[in-house]
Amino acid sequence: MKLTLLCFLLFTSISTTLCAQSANLDREYFKVSYVNLPSHPILEDAKRTYSSNTRSIRLSGFTKVATNGTIDFVFNFHGTKAGEVNIEKETVEEKDEDGKVISTKYYYNVHTSFSSSATLSLANSYTEKSSSNTYQESDNYVSSSFKSYSAASKYYNDNRYNIRDEYRVKHRSEIEDQIYSRVNYLYGYVPYTSSNGNNFWILGNKKHSEFGKHQEAGNGLKEIFEKMEYNQPVETLLAEVKPIVGYFDDVVVRFNGDDKKSRKVRYASFYNNALLYLKLDQPEKAKEYANKLIANDYDKGDGKRIIANADKLIEELKLNELDTRHFEVITEDISDEPVVTEIIVQAPEDTSEKSIAFLITAQNDTLQTLVTANELSRVSAVANLVDSADNEVKVFEAVNTKKMVVASGDVFEVINFQSSLAGDENASLKFAKVLVEGVKVNLYEHMTNEYVLLLNGSEEGTSTMGKNFVFGFNKELAVFGDGCAALIANVESGEFKNTKEDLTKFAKALNSCE
């Protein structure tokens, strides 16, 4: 009996000790504030000027001038079109307790879609390069319910222009937001502040021997980072965090065991020091602690992510010829642009020559349509076609389509790729004209001026207007010739250029290579 009680007391003591050392970690969020640096910087401050035909495009850290800015934007909004209008009937049944239908009511809703497009032309006199990107937005519309077909129809006919105008305003705003983000990503110096996007790891178990000091360190870091401003240097903050960095270094020395709890405590120390140095524009120091975080073998993933972010910051600072992301950002407007009410003019009717086209939907239905020559030159994520059934222009989305065959013999397939011409952030489905089909590779033409290579069996095509292709054409093209040594040799000797003719020649040669 005494032995049993002794064992119980001993077990309780050991359990209490283990619980007291439990290394539960809590997230402690902190503020950061700095300037997001551009991916295509204009290094000379005197040349940071831009001109634009719309107030919606603004470049942070630049001066807007009336004309001849280093960056010149021309924005054209092409208007908003309504898609096919359908009135759908909904049946609502009321049943008794036995499941028997005691009444039936019918309701009618109007269903249609609205799509808008715009083009941004950009001229950069600093690099002597120009580009043109198309932006598109679309929405499905469903009206409220009506008790009769005629009431639903009358409502839409009476209000269709107001409804369209609401979507026009919405789509234009969304497109302008996309453009603002895109051009500032490329060129702008954008102040950024966040209070809940970053966190330190601080001990949360009150019974842990290090709880009090860990909490004190966490609170100290939050107070220091609360003083961070994007336009203020960080040297003072670096001096203030040094004692806390020293504390976390000391924790590592004292909790040097190989058990999981010790490694978890060390993980918090390495992680906190790596992150604070990263946010204080000290990427090399951040990498030192991130490597220790990986070697600690508690959560290697966090260490790898911090190293990747540190390397990215090193490249950004080098590209911008800076050693910090904390400086004053001056944005001015000296263009004397008058305040005017902007009038949106719908794009003129397309009167170019029409051809019969057959659209094969994702459900393998075949629809006969008409397509204009102008539309064929610009089809991308959508195609605006005349439906032969009712002679109305309708928007057909690539995501709902497999193929479009034109009476002239041209074939447009729906393929997945990231378009440089359309300004894509990611790959998406788009119409593209077939130039070459073969056993190894297909070649497509997108919006007249962009060419896409797609290896058979691959789910994503590659635009030859992408950055990698533009700056390393022979190297990238040679990858597609894998297995055909003679063709690769021709590529590496510079036989092919990034043109329709040469890419067609390359694709045919690859398909015939044994």
List the helices and strands and how they pair.
Blueprint lengths: L1 H19 L4 E12 L12 E4 L10 E2 L6 E12 L3 E10 L5 E24 L4 E14 L6 H38 L3 E14 L7 H16 L8 H20 L5 H20 L3 H14 L3 H20 L12 E2 L20 E8 L4 E7 H4 L5 E6 L4 E6 L3 E6 L4 E7 L10 E9 L4 E6 L3 E6 L6 E2 L3 H5 L1 H8 L4 H8 L7 H13 L2
Parallel strand pairs: 2-3, 2-4, 3-9
Antiparallel strand pairs: 1-8, 4-6, 5-6, 6-7, 10-11, 10-14, 11-12, 12-13, 14-15, 15-16, 16-17, 17-18, 18-19
Helix pairs in contact: 3-4, 4-5, 5-6, 5-7, 6-7, 10-11
Give a brief rundown of this model.
This protein has 514 residues and is of the alpha+beta class.
Throw out a few tags for this protein:
31% strand, 514 residues, 12 helices, 19 strands, disordered N terminus, single chain, seven-stranded mixed β-sheet
How is this structure best described in words?
- The structure is a single chain.
- The strands form 3 sheets. Strands 13-12-11-10-14-15-16-17-18-19 form a 10-stranded antiparallel sheet. Strands 2, 3, 4, 5, 6, 7 and 9 form a 7-stranded mixed sheet that branches. The protein has a two-stranded antiparallel ribbon with strand order 1-8.
- The radius of gyration is 31 Å and the shape is globular.
- With 514 residues, the protein is α+β, with helices and mostly antiparallel strands.
- The longest helix is centred in the first third of the chain and has 38 residues, at 149-186.
- The relative contact order is 0.09.
- Residues 1-20 and 339-347 have low confidence and may be disordered.
- It is built from 12 helices and 19 strands.
- α6 runs antiparallel to α7.
- The chain has helices at 2-20, 149-186, 211-226, 235-254, 260-279, 283-296, 300-319, 373-376, 467-471, 473-480, 485-492, 500-512; strands spanning 25-36, 49-52, 63-64, 71-82, 86-95, 101-124, 129-142, 190-203, 332-333, 354-361, 366-372, 382-387, 392-397, 401-406, 411-417, 428-436, 441-446, 450-455, 462-463.
